[in-house]
Each structure stands twice: as C-alpha cells, then as structure tokens.
Write a structure and sequence with these properties.
Blueprint: E1 8-10, E2 16-17, E3 19-22, E4 29-31, E5 35-36, H1 38-53, H2 56-87, E6 92-93, E7 100-101, E8 107-108, E9 113-114, H3 121-143, E10 159-160, E11 167-168
Antiparallel strand pairs: 1-3, 2-5, 3-4, 6-7, 8-9, 10-11
C-alpha cells in the first residue's frame, strides 16, 4: 500500500520521473529528486541517430521506444514508490484526521497533531481577537450617528447651476463658477434676474435689490 499519494503532482516525462508532494493544509510542496528513465534516454538517442543515418539506427530507435512504452507503467510505479518514501520524510501525518502536513507551518508539535485538529493556542487567540475587534468596530460605527448635524433633507439637497452645471448649495443666489443667478424659483416659478431672490408672479420690482422684474 502506497501512503502519501493523495495530494501530489506528477512531473514525469519520457526521460525521467519526478513528483511534487503538497501539504494537505497550506499546499506548501516538496519536489522529489529526478530519477532518470534509462530506457527513455536510450530511445531518444537511437531515434536521434536514426534521423541522421536512417536504416538500422532508426529501427532500433523505434524498437527502444516501443520497449519503453511496454515497461513505462512498471518503471513509473516503482519511481513513485521511491519518491513517496523520500517525500514522507518532509511531512507529518496527523493520527486524528490522517492528513499529511508540513511541520514548519501546519503541525502543532506540542499536541502532536495537525493545526486543523489542534490549533496553536497563541495563534488561535490572536486570530479570534482580530475577528472580535473587526466585529466590534462594525457594530460601533453603525451605532454612531454621523448625520445628526446635517440637515440635508430640509435644505433640499444639492442643486446644479442651470448654466454651467456646477454643484451648488440650495441657499446660493449666484453660481460661484459662472456668476449666473441660480436661486430656486418660487412657487410661481419666478426669481429676480439681478440678485436671484424669489419673487411673486405679480411683483414688478425685486424686494431684495429693487431691480425691475
């Protein structure tokens, strides 16, 4: 039975075998040493010679390739078994969950278990404190009234200048960008063209500046 093979990448080619084993928790990896496939190398050399000289060399190269294909499965399995024995030395298996984890990051040496099953007390405390702090900040910021001194509803909000479309406060009579009279129209829809004050429909002169309407 092969252990330690649930989480790995096969990096093998026809020239040799190599495998990358990964921690089941953080995915840190270890790459096994490269194992040359002698049959694959011999087949490549003979094929290269056959492409130059042709004839028997080419036939030998094809034969070597077919032989490599015939024994590749067994050779690959043997290389994997050897790589597993090598890779296991760099990981620890948790007896509680069975996962293989890296000892540098994901292993609780004091408990003898992986940190998923037995979290490090100091790390867990720091993580929970950070989470609680975030939740408390979220709650307190929503309890605070940040608009109590802002009477934006009664003022009617922000308006725009009809000429240049600059943003204006509702109580402005003239635009600060272009100088246009921008006071809001009265209920009758009339305002002074000189000072911008609202006026009644039947007024002939402005109450503020006296300009003829």
């Amino acid at each position: 039975m092969l252990q330690f093979v649930a989480n790995y990448d096969d990096l093998s080619t026809d020239k040799g075998y190599q495998f990358k084993f990964r921690c089941d928790k953080c995915q840190n990896g270890y790459v096994s040493r490269y194992q040359t496939n002698a049959m694959g190398v011999a087949g490549s050399l003979l094929s290269a010679a056959g492409s130059i000289f042709g004839g028997l060399f080419n036939e030998a190269g094809n034969a070597a390739y077919q032989m490599q294909r015939a024994v590749g499965g067994k050779a690959h399995d043997e290389a994997l078994a050897e790589a597993v024995q090598e890779g296991k030395q760099h990981f620890k298996q948790c007896t509680r969950c069975g996962h293989w984890v890296c000892p540098e990051v994901c292993w609780n040496h004091q408990a003898g278990l992986c940190e998923t099953c037995a979290p490090d007390e100091q790390e867990e405390l720091a993580a929970q404190q950070a989470r609680a702090t975030s939740e408390q900040i979220y709650t307190k910021t929503r309890e605070q009234n940040y608009t109590k001194d802002t009477d934006f509803l009664s003022r009617g909000g922000i308006t725009q200048c009809p000429s240049c479309h600059s943003k204006l406060s509702p109580d402005q009579k003239f635009c600060g960008s272009c100088g246009s009279a921008v006071a809001a129209a009265s209920a009758a829809g009339k305002f002074c063209g000189g000072c911008g004050s609202s006026s009644k429909a039947d007024q002939r002169f402005c109450n503020e500046c006296g300009q003829k309407q």
